[in-house]
Amino acid sequence: MVRVLERLGHTVEFPAGQTCCGQMHYNTGYQAEAMPLLERFVAQFKGAEAVVVPSSSCVAMMRDHYPIMAEHIGKPELTAELNKLLPNVYEFSEFLTKRLGLTDVGAYYPHKVTYHASCHGLRNLGLGDGPQQLLRAVKGIDLVEIAGLEQCCGFGGTFAVKNAEVSSAMLAEKTNAILNTKAEACTACDNSCLMHIQGALHRQRTPVRTIHLAEILASEDGAVIA
Amino acid sequence: MSGTALDPRTAPTFPMAAHKLMGDTQLRKNVRHATDVIQNKRAKVVGEMPDWQGLREAGKSLREHTMKHLDVYLEQFERNCTAAGGVVHWARNGEEAKRIVIDLVKASGSNEVIKIKSMTTEEIQLNTALEAAGIRPYETDLAELIIQLGKDQPSHIVVPALHKNRQQIREIFQREMNLPDLGNTPQDLADAARLFLREKFLKVKTGVSGANFLIAETGGVCVVESEGNGRMCLTLPETLITIAGIDKVVPRFQDLEVLLQLLPRSATGERMNPYNSVWTGVHPGDGPKAFHVILMDNARTEILADEEGRQTLNCIRCGACQNACPVYRQTGGHAYGSVYAGPIGAILTPQLQEMHHAQTLPYASSLCGACYEVCPVKINIPEVLIHLRNKVVKQNGPFGPEALAMRGMAMIFRSEARFRAAQRFGRMAETPLVRKDGNGEGWIGWLPGLLGGWTQVRDLQEMPKETFRDWWEKRADAKGGKHGN
Amino acid sequence: MATDARTAILSKIRSALGTKATPEAAAAAWAGLPRDYVRVSTGTKSELIERLIDRLHDYDAQVLEVEATDLKAGVAKMLTARGATKMLIPLGLSNALLPEGVDFTVDTGLSAAELDACGGVLTEATLAIAETGSLVLQNVAGQGRRAGSLVPDYHLCVVDVAKVVGTVPEAISALQATAGLATTFISGPSATADIEMTRIKGVHGPRFLDVILVH
Ligand code: SF4
Fold first, then answer.
1. What is the pLDDT of residues C88-134, one digit of tens each?
2. What is the pTM (predicted TM-score) of this model?
3. Contact A145, B357 (CB under 8 A)
4. Closest chain B C-alpha to A96 CA, distance in angstroms
5. CA–CA separation, B439 vs C25, rounded Å?
6. The domain defined by B14-302 carries CATH number 3.40.50.10420
7. For labelling, which of A165, B113, C52, C85 has a CA lying 20 to 30 Å from the CA of A208?
């Protein structure tokens, strides 16, 4: 992601104090534990021109829940900072297509790839086919559509552990769909889905890899960047 | 006559129930097929409505408005229904509602009733109570008949027998209707049900129904159905008893223009379902001579009191969220241990139990949002699920293993130094679990304790030797710059 | 004395809402609800009729278009095609609709068994909705009580094209003045999809529905 942004002439900062958006806590029912992480986020990132996040579910967490959480915390300065910051928080593909208005970022990736629409990207962020537009503009790529594009892969944070069996059945459907495309790699805008899917693909001893969208867009020589 | 009712108070946890059902491949196939068909039909008829989002927004606002003025509208309904010759009863809970029904049936002189499909009567297990009181209930909806004769339980709020296929239904009918030569086309089966029930329709003197909408402005009641069994029960008996949750009220007749567009398209994927009946009190020379409505609370006021959970009451019971839910599609409805299954069940059931039971249901979701996307009244089910999870966490107290782990992690995430240390520690801790694969990459194939669910079917890649943070700082050092801010 | 259920429920609602809503406030808020959807159909009358016919065909209903002067012949034609010889008719149905050679029984409050003995029923309708292919019947002259259009196995419905509206909202507005009457929306013959989601015609209501549109 850094490589792509710098290639496009942007200055990237990485505030070293950042940690986690708190989604896992919030979504599992530990709202109280997530509150300080919101304050931390605001403190770390305030003043940024744009905050670019490589995971759609983290952005969904910030957009959908931070405002409500800030209301609960009830500090006016915090709310004000958050309101200034939030419109400038972007998921990576969204930043490229919506803020910068780009589809071609000059990448070269001569492989057969399928794209998984993560639920939060699809439904909460409304990414639409922005990520596919970016992929289609990659030179050399052979983009194949997956059956059941809008089906959840079954990750769902702690769901994958609490309801492992159901989660696994959902995942099996997803990996079948991926294998049916005969793609070499499956990409997405969400690391958690990818980790989940990669785990099953590896267990099934398939050579298919998962790769983050940013890694494909960063590629200039066609090599898999791990 | 009925099998063991689905009862959230005694049901196993969701993961346990799901485990059992997921071994039933026939059931999973049936559920998959049925939900696929309805979803496709729904998508087609919703797609032809350019104003669908406007209708959803109108539906949502209308339902929110109704809940905010619920007392006013219930009183209006009562007044207008009574003026039209109906008798309105109020029931604080299922027990009171059942008592009222039994007394009314006895007073009408019947020892049998014909019933229209009603999830509200399922919720309170009315049939069991009627049988105990010596009253025989006949379910007349085809799916409910299949369930009743098969001593089964409903698994979907619109298509309660979708977990059964035609062979299974045929076996039930052959046995229970004594028809050894029954064919197995859906038409044969429907014809058998028609014959079996016609005699009941023509002779049973008391009908019991639920309601889709109670119209405050007119005192009218609206029932939406397909087969005509509903119309039979609403028009042929001499006494009609309708049980409705207090959430079923709508302000005005005009509101049907929104709801009668949203409901059929979402529920069965039809532009309009075959029959909608609207009646108001007693109509001389047309239908029952006595009409009773029971307005039942049964914990709905508790839900109303919770501002974040309140939107649950906006539900119009279309079942679209069930068809769209990837979890429901894997397990079917019985896993939810309640007549309300799927996403709506996951939020409604624990709240109807005032959070005393069914606490695993809010976790029976990957929060993928497919339910919210299809809900015709825009209930933000994922938001309510998270809200209920928070209630469960508070109930469980701060000392469970999960709570401790969550607090521990939150503490790490609150400090950069602790976060760095945790990344280092994580690499050390995982070392004994990591095995190299053929490509020389490290993977974890087994995890202990709470995390074991992950490694049932997935591996976990070891943490990278160099984190992004390390890479970033090395690069900055090389450039002689600072480490960010 | 223990409070009665009514008082208890209403007071729980009021304490849950934290306010006591008034009918006036409710009416004002209701009037402000968003209604950003299609209320009135665009399109010519003939487009509406075409859409209605299309929707009715979708439900497997047969449709016949006739001029008012040919109505009786149209009814005769449909009844012959269905082989219907014993038909129920509601009170107040115009004699001008009734061809010779068919046994018409007027519904003067027949028993359920007597209704069941009629092979079919002939009625008019209050209105029809093009968008959804629905017929709306009310308990008035020419349409009759609800059981009449339900128990017989065949329903032939005569609809004046002047009564065809485009959308559901138009239909509901038109019905507002008579909302207190027993009202039935009929969209195709009785049907179920309860067995493997296969649509099967006719479980308990009429298995056959035909419509005559009168120009
Ligand atoms: S929650 Fe929404 S989608 Fe689910 S049954 Fe209720 S109205 Fe339908």
1. 999 999 998 999 989 999 999 899 899 999 999 999 999 999 999 99
2. 0.93
3. no
4. 21
5. 71
6. yes
7. A165
